[in-house]
Amino acid sequence: MEATVPFAGGALITGVAFVLFKGSLPDRIATHFTLGGSADGYSSPGTTLGQYMLLFAIQALGALGMVFSIKAAPRAARGLRTLGCGLAAGTAYDLIATLWVVSDSSGRNVHLPSYQWAVDVLVAAAVAAAVWFVSRSQA
User: pLDDT tens-digit profile of 36-48?
Assistant: First the structure.
């Protein structure tokens, strides 16, 4: 179950951000973007929140599948913890950045800046690196 904690945390943080942004969100929220950053898929706020939570649930199930397949060797468990924390942090950042962009747009001409993808990867890598170093010092 430890493998699912990062995803539960990511879902909680994203849910709190959704509640904080709720008053400024339009009736249609951009939920899918092209590689160029233009919105090409929209959902209602309730559906959007459900999609966000489903994404974390799928990631948590994938992490559980990995736990059962690696037999929880200490080294593999550290790697799984690192991957899970980085993935959950990157996902939460991406979803919150999307909410921020959407809340500023009033639902029109939604465009997610290209640099957000790079920041997403950097956030994931920084969190994963921090978890890796902390787990090494505790070993």
Answer: 888 888 899 999 9
Residue range 1-18, pLDDT digits in tens: 677 889 999 999 999 999
Nearest to 63 by CA among 90, 85, 33, 84: 84
Buried b (16+ CB within 10 A) or exposed e, 94-116: bbbbbbebbbebeeeebebeeeb
The residues that bridge with 42 in the sheet, in sequence order, are 30
CA of 65: how far to CAs of 9, 51, 59, 70, in Å?
A: 19, 21, 10, 9
